[in-house]
Amino acid sequence: MAGTTIRLFEDTAHAASYAAFRPSYPPAVLDTISSFIKTHSGSGFSSAVDVGCGSGQSTFFLASLFDGVLGVDVSEAQIQNAKAKRQKQRADVTTSKKEVEFRVASAASLPLESSSVDLVSCAQAWHWLEPASFYREAARVLRPKGTVAVYGYGNVELRCSSEARKLVSEFYSSLRRGGYWHENRRHIDDKYVEVQLDSPFAVSERKDLEMTCRMSLSHFAGYVSTWSGYCSFLEKHPHSTSLRDLQDGLKAALQAQGTEEDPLLDTTFPVFIVMAVTCCKGGVVLPQGTGPALLQVPGCAGELRVNGPRSIDSKPITITAFFPLPGEDDDPPAAAMHYLLPAAVIAMEEVNRAVETEGLYPYHLQLDLRNSSCDRFVAIHELMLSLEENLGSGNPHLAVLGPGCLDVTTSLSSLAHGLFLPQVTYANETSVPVVTPEEKREEFPDLFFVVRNVLHITKTGLRVMEHFQWTEQVALVYDDLPLYTRTVELIVRDSGGDFTLQVSSKTQITVPGDAFVAIPSDGRDNTVKEFMTGVRRLNIRVIVGLVGVESACAVVCEAKAGIVPGDGFSYLLVGAYQENWWETCSCGLEDADIESLISVSSQVKNTLSNDQFVLGSNLTQLKLDYTDRLNSWCPETIGRAPNTFFATTYDSLLALGLAIKNSLPLLNASAEDTSYSNTTIAPYNTSLFQAILNSLADSNFTGASGRVAFSSAGERMGVDVVQQIQSGKLVLVGTYHSETDRLEINSSLLRWPGGEVPGVFPSDDPKTATLSILIVVLIITITSNVGAVVLLGFVIRYRNHRIFLASGQRLNYIVFTGAFMAFTTIYILVLLESTLGPKLPTKLFTTFCIVRFYLLPLSFTCTFGTLFTRAWRVYRIFNNPFVTSRKYTDKHLIVIVAVLGVVDIFLVTVTAFPNNYGRFIARAEVDYNTYSACTYLGCFSENYAIVTGIVGVYKLLQMLLFTFVVSLVRRGVIERKIYDDSKFLAIALYVTAIVFMVGLPLQVLLSISFKIAEALAVNTVWVIVSSDVTLVAIYVPKLYQIIYKKVDVRKLMTQKSKFYLYSETRSTIL
């Protein structure tokens, strides 16, 4: 829209037509507005202003709801018509007793005081206004929680013949084609979809209704004559008969349908309403009068004691101070922030008391309390209101204090800079960082921080990492909250998959992509579990945590559960934590679980730490004074208020007060000129502003939170502390002085597991699988795999030989499938333990691990389960020599093998992957080092011991059963003196049982000791040996007999045995 108000409908004739022919809104519109006010606002129905009122249709309409209504319009002619209409309506009992006025005024400059009305309405006029100016002025005149309502009606629609509707539509379109409609008319056509009542408003709502009217043809023609498009057309074509032609055409169209001589038109109009509530509250000015006073200040139920200036003729210097000031119907936002206000009041009084004795007269400091609601638009609006209300009295407005939420600080700082207002923020150390030393100070030249936030503390943490040379094998985890995400954005750089943290020009810390993780609040446990899995897989040695207590607990608890090794491992946590925070963790952390953890925090705390302040106040007196005021103002805090004095708030106001005091000569020099204005800057005002700014930059005093001084970037200079947990207590081991950029670490106070600082593993460390071991394992596996393929080739070649047909060719293929599965598990291990493993995406790595979990038991089942079923078939035939071939076909045996495979899958699934059961086992009172190392060669499961135990015992029982059945078959074969391969099957089972019972426990023991290379070698030996021995023992003798024809099967056939040797296609009696 254009930047200025569009002025139309201003001639007298047009105004008269507008008043006579424009339709009136239906009662449903009034009901909608009333319902919205009652539901969302609650401001009342005492007064309203109707902007762009025209001839007063909507103004009189609102009078039935509000006690007083003011209609304003830029058109003098429209206002005169409205006033005339008001005179005629005096007899109307619904409006005669109501205060209804009309004035000529623009939407950008309403003739009303601030916070004076309950409703600002704009009916069928928004599209002619400049929205930003209208919104700003509406927010100014509305009371707290007042309502703004923008509504209108769209194009008329006829409920009659299609020919009549076509005539009206063509008439409207011809005006648009001719360019007679103003471009802003499109907003009406679009039904005000562009009306967005967000900031500085809240609780926006839209309603769509319908308005119906019955008009005569002459009245309808009069309505069309008020169209702005037709008025523009008529100015260029004053003798046009187009409107008369439209009226005649409509009459003919209606009479063609048998309508009476003077037909009436049924018309409808779409009505659209957009409403919102002001989200701001007016300020509370402290002090109010001279001497002590008890004041009702929003936020608490009691009274706050405030000491005013001693001099009755002292003039106030206003500082707009942003604090949460909830009303009766509001939920208190950040209740702990209520404790800040008494500290600011005491600091204001201290400044006034001290400067009065040194010549501040004729001025004193006053606080204009405002609520930003943590919304930048609200904060800007409140600051402008504060300026307007205080400068109107001719008092200087010199500074801004706060706000507490830094996500609105930059927007407020930009405005304050344009108004020559220095800004000091008291926000605590967990505030969202918005500016860094690397960013240009020119962007926020007037902003000063009296805290060191998480960004500053994180940079100290990076210096600590540089000191310990923790530059590689580092993981970074942070909570997905603005406080931490903004910090990460400012310190982390993407380096093509990996990430770097720049400490200095010489040092940078590298973080692998899979070790850089954000923790969502709604999926913390799963995310931390996956993160800690990557920590072990990537051989991470140091975890940097930008997290709150809950996530810190989750990370440390996962380590206790057995996801990472305990020896030589360290954490570095950045942030503000309560004392002994680990005692709140649900997993029951013990001292050993968090031993040697490093924590970095700021020594600039919200607690008094000095015995004497710069203004001479005693620490004990201030604390007693603070507690007394807080308890009288907020009785509900008695016994619950933290034993802290919010020192940074005190020091923020103290810094501003001292800076103004130091600029007193310039202020006194202009004392005779009381027209101080931050919007019309005089030369002396610029000088005064610069003097205050320079004095703030040069601040150097001892305050409640320690020494107060600022860097060139407006940041609080101070000391950060480095602490280490030792025997369940935080021990100070170092400090960082931001003013001199000096880190001091007392190495003699540090305690590490094993006595050494955790560092990067050397390349020949036995805890990693070396390249030579991997190559040997790979060669053995490939050789065995090739041998199996060759053997399978011979089996396929002689697949029609009676020996193979007798044993079941499909079953032979399943046996080989099991062997190839076993080889695949070795290939997966080699991949995961090689240098390629850490480079795999976490999900792919986990997928390989899961696949291997399933392949191991399935390979055993495919190989030995198949051989077992064949032996079992022979055993059954021994006991029932008259059994038919249909009872024990290969298909029956395959079904048995499949059932055994399903049991394997079920056991692995229910034991390896449920989180809750695994957590219960992991938290049992077991040796920490045992569980911390229960990682199956790089594939991590906190249930590893359960999986190994249950599946291992199950397979051992299977093997004993197989061996028993084979032994029975062996006795039967020997007794009957027939040819059978049961002795070779027995050899394979005996060898596999020995290898299994020795190899698997040995592999677990090596894994516990983190001897990955040895564990990998043992795993390879028992898997390869069992597979190779089985294939060789079962199939080489058969091939030998076939190739060298050592056995003639036909000669082995005898009627005495009555033993069936058969395949699916035939049976032969041996």
TrEMBL record:
<dbReference type="InterPro" id="IPR001828">
    <property type="entry name" value="ANF_lig-bd_rcpt"/>
</dbReference>
<dbReference type="GO" id="GO:0008757">
    <property type="term" value="F:S-adenosylmethionine-dependent methyltransferase activity"/>
</dbReference>
<keyword id="KW-0472">Membrane</keyword>
<dbReference type="Pfam" id="PF08241">
    <property type="entry name" value="Methyltransf_11"/>
</dbReference>
<dbReference type="InterPro" id="IPR000337">
    <property type="entry name" value="GPCR_3"/>
</dbReference>
<dbReference type="InterPro" id="IPR017978">
    <property type="entry name" value="GPCR_3_C"/>
</dbReference>
<keyword id="KW-1133">Transmembrane helix</keyword>
<dbReference type="Pfam" id="PF00003">
    <property type="entry name" value="7tm_3"/>
</dbReference>
<dbReference type="InterPro" id="IPR028082">
    <property type="entry name" value="Peripla_BP_I"/>
</dbReference>
<keyword id="KW-0325">Glycoprotein</keyword>
<feature type="transmembrane region" description="Helical">
    <location>
        <begin position="987"/>
        <end position="1010"/>
    </location>
</feature>
<feature type="transmembrane region" description="Helical">
    <location>
        <begin position="893"/>
        <end position="913"/>
    </location>
</feature>
<dbReference type="Pfam" id="PF01094">
    <property type="entry name" value="ANF_receptor"/>
</dbReference>
<feature type="transmembrane region" description="Helical">
    <location>
        <begin position="1016"/>
        <end position="1036"/>
    </location>
</feature>
<feature type="domain" description="G-protein coupled receptors family 3 profile">
    <location>
        <begin position="773"/>
        <end position="1045"/>
    </location>
</feature>
<feature type="domain" description="G-protein coupled receptors family 1 profile">
    <location>
        <begin position="787"/>
        <end position="1044"/>
    </location>
</feature>
<feature type="transmembrane region" description="Helical">
    <location>
        <begin position="771"/>
        <end position="798"/>
    </location>
</feature>
<feature type="transmembrane region" description="Helical">
    <location>
        <begin position="944"/>
        <end position="966"/>
    </location>
</feature>
<keyword id="KW-0297">G-protein coupled receptor</keyword>
<dbReference type="GO" id="GO:0038039">
    <property type="term" value="C:G protein-coupled receptor heterodimeric complex"/>
</dbReference>
<feature type="transmembrane region" description="Helical">
    <location>
        <begin position="810"/>
        <end position="832"/>
    </location>
</feature>
<feature type="coiled-coil region">
    <location>
        <begin position="72"/>
        <end position="99"/>
    </location>
</feature>
<dbReference type="InterPro" id="IPR029063">
    <property type="entry name" value="SAM-dependent_MTases_sf"/>
</dbReference>
<dbReference type="InterPro" id="IPR013216">
    <property type="entry name" value="Methyltransf_11"/>
</dbReference>
<protein>
    <submittedName>
        <fullName>Gamma-aminobutyric acid type B receptor subunit 2</fullName>
    </submittedName>
</protein>
<dbReference type="InterPro" id="IPR017452">
    <property type="entry name" value="GPCR_Rhodpsn_7TM"/>
</dbReference>
<keyword id="KW-0812">Transmembrane</keyword>
<keyword id="KW-0675">Receptor</keyword>
<keyword id="KW-0175">Coiled coil</keyword>
<keyword id="KW-0807">Transducer</keyword>
<dbReference type="GO" id="GO:0004965">
    <property type="term" value="F:G protein-coupled GABA receptor activity"/>
</dbReference>
<dbReference type="GO" id="GO:0007214">
    <property type="term" value="P:gamma-aminobutyric acid signaling pathway"/>
</dbReference>
<dbReference type="InterPro" id="IPR002455">
    <property type="entry name" value="GPCR3_GABA-B"/>
</dbReference>
<feature type="transmembrane region" description="Helical">
    <location>
        <begin position="844"/>
        <end position="872"/>
    </location>
</feature>
